Amino acid sequence: MSSFHTPGHKGRLELCADPAMDLTELPDTGSLYDGGDAIQAAEEEAARQFGAARTFFSGGGCTLCIQTMLMLASGGGRILMARNAHRSALHTAALLGLDPVWCWPDYTRPTGPIGADEVEKMLNTDHNIRSVYITSPDYYGNLCDVAGIAAVCGRAGIPLLVDNAHGSHLGAFGRHPLAQGAYMTADSAHKTLPVLTGGAYLHFSPQAAAAISREAGKGAMALFGSTSPSFMTLASLDRAQGWWGEKGEEAYRRTAEATEALRRTAAAAGLPAAFPKIAPRFKDPARLTLEFPDGQAAAAYFRRRGCEPELADERYVVFILTPFNTREDIRRLSAALEEYRPGLPTAGRAFSAFPPGLRPERALSLRQAALRPAEEIPAAKAVGRIAARALCPCPPGVAAVAPGERLTAELVAWLEERGYSRLPVVAESGE
Questions:
Q1: Where are the domains of the chain?
Q2: Ramachandran quadrant class, 415 (left: phi over 0; alpha: psi -120 to 50; beta: rest)
Q3: pLDDT band at 313 (very low <50, low <70, confident <90, very high)
Q4: Architecture of the domain spanning 249-338
Q5: CA angle, corner 308, sides to 306 and 310, nearest 5?
Q6: Cis peptide preceding 272, ω within 30 of 0
Q7: How far apart are CA 355 and CA 332, in angstroms?
């Protein structure tokens, strides 16, 4: 089976894994949360290779980076947050007592799901917002206008925080959010680089590094991170930055060329690229996202042809390519695309990452809902109740309903269609 999903090493563990590095804190290794040791030296080299002012390693995935980033730079209180945020951001906001102001994605805009004009309008409307948090790229490979949004944030004097989980490689194309003005980015390195699962980078801009000391940053990370991080994972991050500095950018440019060839093959077979209204410069060149009448049925076809995609939903199939996909992988996917016939079974359902036209009413804050007693009840009895947890149909794994939002009949019906037979709600004593 050819892997067109994470992790980026595509099963070639020799690229990143060394069992001899399954160590603990020793004089020669140091500690992830302390300074002046081998880890710090490796982090400093990673910052140099990736063009950051400072870089931290994470063995707790991008989630730990998001937790640390929001702790350090959210400013507390109100935060303008794109609604396609990963559930880890919502959980962190609940723990920190942040008050999100939702910015809803629009996939018809040419500059990506979240626009600079919309961010500026919302900041001008609400002067209590202390930071902006976006996801770029999203699961489908769509990028926001990070440079435009960063300029808006700069004029407002607030930081732009970017969940760049799927974009550690974007520096090869001049599209990494840090290079476009982001204050801090969380990069899930294992998704697209030769890194063991759980390995991630937290990158600081010069402004962030000047405002936040290394000690304060590590202290924030220690609040959330395990005291037993995997040194194998940390070592794979170190290896990855070495690979990136030596050959990563050129390797990814070749991967982009292979992806474009597959995109042309798909078009010739009558398979359109997804989100045609979004300009190519706001898309990941190394991600192949195609539109189908039924994404789930199409994914089943590709699996039968030996190609495992990253994601399939009601309408789209996503293939993640990295330099570690073999020529045979590419040949196999190309043949499957050439031979695809649209007569596959279709459910005929339109895609929607969120309930169409439904924006849930907030009844409690994220923190109030997440920390109060909860109960799980049949979906049919949940109408009018308050969600206790983020309800994230996966894919794409973003919150259709956030903790604290009230469940309407329309929302419950939409969730039931996606397999939710029981729903977690705030216990009646806590409402």
A1: 9-242, 249-338, 366-430
A2: alpha
A3: confident
A4: Alpha-Beta Complex (3.90)
A5: 165
A6: no
A7: 36
Lowest mean pLDDT across 33-47, 48-62, 200-214, 232-246: 33-47
**CB 350, CB 278: distance < 8 Å:** no
| Helix-helix angle 214-224:61-73, to 10 degrees | 130
Per-residue model confidence as pLDDT tens digits over 364-413: 999 999 999 999 999 999 999 999 999 987 666 678 899 999 999 999 99
Q: Please state which architecture CATH assigns to domain 9-242.
A: 3-Layer(aba) Sandwich (3.40)
Burial class (CB in 10 A: 0-12, 13-18, 19+), 426: buried
Total Cβ atoms within 10 A of residue 141: 24
Fold of 366-430: Ornithine Decarboxylase; Chain A, domain 4 (3.90.100)
Who wins on pLDDT, 424 or 272?
424
Nearest one of 121, 114, 119 to 131, comparing CA atoms: 119
Which residues 6+ apart lie within 8 Å of 156 measured at CB?
123
End-to-end CA distance of the chain: 49
Q: Which residue has the tokens 């991967």?
A: 255
Q: Residue 92 and residue 223: Cα distance in Å, rounded?
A: 12
The answer to whether the peptide bond before residue 194 is cis (omega within 30 degrees of 0) is no
φ and ψ of 422, to 5 deg: -130, 145
SS (H, E, C) the chain: CEEECCCCCCCCHHHCCCHHHCCCCCCCCCCCCCCCCHHHHHHHHHHHHHCCCEEEEECCHHHHHHHHHHHHHCCCCEEEEECCCEHHHHHHHHHHCCEEEEECCCCCCCCCCCCHHHHHHHHHHCCCEEEEEEECCCCCCECCCHHHHHHHHHHHCCCEEEECCCCCCHHHHCCCHHHHCCCEEEECHHHCCCCCCCCEEEEECHHHHHHCCHHHHHHHHHHHCCCCCCHHHHHHHHHHHHHHHHHHHHHHHHHHHHHHHHHHHHHHCCCCECCCCCCHHHECCCEEEEECCCHHHHHHHHHHCCEEECEECCCEEEEECCCCCCHHHHHHHHHHHHCCCCCCCCCCCCCCCCCCCCCCCECCCHHHHHHCCEEEEEHHHCCCCEECCCECCCCCCECCECCCEECCHHHHHHHHHCCCCEEEEECHHHC
